[in-house]
Specification:
single chain; alpha/beta; TIM Barrel; 2 domains; nine-stranded mixed sheet; 17 strands; globular
Length: about 425
């Protein structure tokens, strides 16, 4: 069975997230986007865990169904949305005379396993403070707790290149996955690439060949679901999905943000408006020419530092990937209005009604059908997206980049 999964999301109990981020809203937006499996996020938070137990029922395959289905926000094609128990943990600790800060995704097949994990973690840190709790424990020890809770509980390192909070990040990471997880490294079978990198960038580092490249939205609002996602053709079960991630049999690859749009792609300083390529940063010795402080070294630079290849060399068994641009951003560019403007949102709703869901429109709908329904400009935009004909303005130091499909001023002539 073919299905799409977004396995890194949050609830309204996480900091800097939408107050409307609940199970019902996640379900509604999963149908709008075309996502079959969504992570619950935040299962370590006591109140959210209680809500999960009250509102979800096991489907018998390791996933969960929503007891009471909400009314649809838009006229989207009905799909069978399931939830996968998940959370994100922030580990901050000292190792090798350096403070390490890294984030990790945890997955569990049932409430009993979650309860075991939560009981252990509650003795280490305050799980009520944040949906993504901060724990003063090594990532290796977190992994030990997870694998001890169940043979079907898993840890996947999150957004592995992010400068501040990741396994390989420039600010507080390691130079290898093994250096982080030590004697338990064999339990790691996949890594999350994050918004600021794609599988091709990761395949410049041969040490990552053994890991499946997974991508997720890390959504802090339901509208951001599916900005990255995973594609499967296997049994739509918890065991089937993770077996595909372990073996790459049945794992079809990922839907990717253009990494330039990620907010840590380039080096730079947000306050100074400085954005540098790695070679330019090197010429400045990693120092901002404006304020004379160290630059925030971005993902591209960090990948280059650890790379042992000049060109990506994916293993023969590795799955592929394709890029997407969130549909509201495409509409926003065409209309010359903000993503959250009424006109953009109305057009988005109309397109969902015509084509069923966002992924179908972006990836599968024939360009001629798009032209007939929406006109030549939308047809041209989707054609350029599918052919990777884009104009990027890269992100840096916490500032998201922008991806355009039309040259500046081009739409005035259409």
């Amino acid at each position: 069975m073919r299905y799409t999964a977004d396995l890194h999301v949050h609830s309204h109990y996480s900091r800097a997230t939408s107050r409307a981020l609940n199970l019902e809203t996640l379900y509604q937006w999963a149908t709008i986007k075309g996502i079959h499996i969504i992570g619950t996020g935040d299962f370590t938070h006591p109140k959210w865990f209680q809500e999960l137990q009250e509102k979800l029922i096991p489907d018998g395959n390791g996933f969960f169904k929503l007891k009471n289905l909400p009314s649809q926000l838009m006229t989207a094609q009905a799909i069978d949305v399931r939830f996968c128990l998940s959370t994100e943990i922030s580990c901050i600790y000292k190792d090798g005379n350096k403070v390490r800060k890294n984030h990790h995704l945890l997955y569990a097949p049932d409430f009993e396993t979650v309860a075991k994990i939560n009981d252990k973690l509650s003795t280490i840190g305050n799980l009520t403070a944040d949906g993504r709790p901060i724990l003063g424990m090594p990532a290796r020890d977190l992994l030990e707790i997870v694998v001890s809770a169940s043979d079907s509980a898993y840890l996947i390192p999150a957004h592995i290149w992010t400068p501040w909070f990741s396994v390989l990040g420039s600010k507080s990471g390691y130079n290898s996955i093994a250096a982080c997880f030590k004697d338990l490294t064999s339990h790691i079978f996949a890594v999350e690439t994050g918004l600021s990198s794609d599988p091709a960038m990761n395949r410049l580092v041969s040490a990552l060949d053994q890991y499946t490249m997974m991508s997720n939205s890390d959504a802090h609002s339901a509208q951001n679901l599916g900005r990255e996602a995973n594609l499967f053709d296997t049994a739509c079960t918890y065991d089937g999905m993770f077996e595909a991630l372990k073996t790459q049999k049945g794992f079809l690859g990922t839907l990717e943000f253009f990494p330039q749009e990620g907010k840590y792609f380039m080096d730079g300083h947000r306050n100074c408006g400085v954005c540098f390529e790695p070679t330019t940063s090197q010429a400045h010795h990693g120092i901002c020419p404006e304020c004379k402080k160290p630059l925030t070294i971005g993902v591209l630079n960090r990948v280059v530092c650890l790379a042992d290849r000049e060109q990506p060399q994916p293993p023969s068994h590795a799955a592929g990937f394709e890029y997407i641009i969130p549909l509201p951003e495409i509409i926003s560019e065409i209309k010359g209005m903000g993503v959250s403007s009424k006109a953009v949102q109305q057009q988005f709703t109309s397109i969902i009604g015509l084509f069923g869901n966002e992924f179908t429109f972006l990836r599968e709908s024939p360009v001629e059908d798009i032209k007939q329904q929406l006109g030549p400009i939308y047809a041209e935009a989707i054609s350029r997206l599918r052919n990777r004909q884009i104009i990027p303005e890269p992100g840096y130091d916490g500032v998201y980049g922008t991806i355009r499909v039309f040259q500046l001023g081009e739409l005035k002539n259409k």
